[in-house]
Design goal:
single chain, 136 residues, alpha/beta, two-stranded antiparallel sheet, 4 helices, 7 strands, Rhodanese-like_dom_sf, Rhodanese-like_dom, Rhodanese-related sulfurtransferase (PspE)
């Protein structure tokens, strides 16, 4: 079973534990058009490693991408996507590959849409007002 934490709980762990890493598994298009968590005030960088492409096809190199990024099986890895679904897939894949401390960030970066169809206001990283880099 994959553990889940809220974005604020994730932020606190990233701040208080130097061995934690946040991995954004969305697509480059999402990072450019929507933004991503900003960890610079924690003197950390977010890793951007897509678990799927824009067409929903799985990145068959996902685990090797994690390894090539220098991640170790004993590290605590937090996975984030738009809503928490792709990041759950990423966490499961990492766990199956031997990463023993994997956590899914609940509601992801944007969370569910509100009544108007707008994301980022109900739940998720943006709704919890955590630092983010977003296009203007």
């Amino acid at each position: 079973m994959i553990d889940e934490k809220t974005p604020t709980e994730t932020w606190d762990q990233l701040k208080n534990n130097e061995n934690t890493v946040l991995i954004d598994v969305r697509t480059p298009q999402e990072w450019q058009q929507i933004g991503y968590p900003d960890l610079s005030s924690l003197n950390k960088n977010i890793l951007k490693i897509s678990v799927q492409n824009i067409y929903g096809e799985r990145n068959n190199n996902f685990i090797s991408d994690l390894t090539e990024a220098g991640l170790k099986p004993e590290q605590t890895l937090y996975f984030v996507c738009r809503s928490g679904k792709r990041s759950m897939l990423a966490a499961m894949l990492a766990q199956q590959a031997g990463f023993s401390h994997v956590i899914n960030v609940q509601d992801g970066f944007e969370g569910p849409a509100d009544q108007t169809g707008r994301t980022g206001s109900i739940a998720g990283w943006l709704a919890e007002k955590l630092p983010a880099i977003q296009p203007i």
